Amino acid sequence: MAKDKEKKVKECGSKAAKETESTSDKEVNELKAQLEAVQKELEATREELAKTKDSFLRTYADLENVRRRAAQDRLDLISSASKDVISGILGVLDSCDAALRMLEEGSPERTGVETICNNLLDYLKTKGLEKIEAKGEVFDTEKHEAVAQFPVSDEDMKGKVFDVTQTGYILAGKVLRYAKVVVGI
Prior knowledge:
Distance between the termini: 141 Å
Order of helices and strands: HHEEEEEE
Radius of gyration: 46 Å
Number of strands: 6
């Protein structure tokens, strides 16, 4: 009987040990499963954060581009407005040049017209307007428009501007009106 009792105690002990082992294996498996779920959730959160950050940076870059374009559009509008006004005034400058050609040198009327023309031209220069100097220069299609060709006897004048029929102007580094010229051939 003692042996039977001893055997039963051993069986109960090993049964209890097995149950303890099974219980701790179950708990370990449950903890592993929970850990994996938390890791998956953490990875998903990291991916979502990366996508959100990328979206934010793209949106910020788009906003900066819109700001830059708006500022450039404002500058272009101002430039365009001044270009239109100055283009309209070029006719007045042409009239001044014609009046000066008609008036005799040294006459008081010529002096007055010269003063008015110079004041107008000086003001327009402060706005970025420049005259295209053409007479005697080599013909340049970037600044000149040939309206005629004229045979010249002087070899040095061949391919150069012989006469200017209408003065050309540059505004802020861009040709506003090409100089209409006669080219020597």
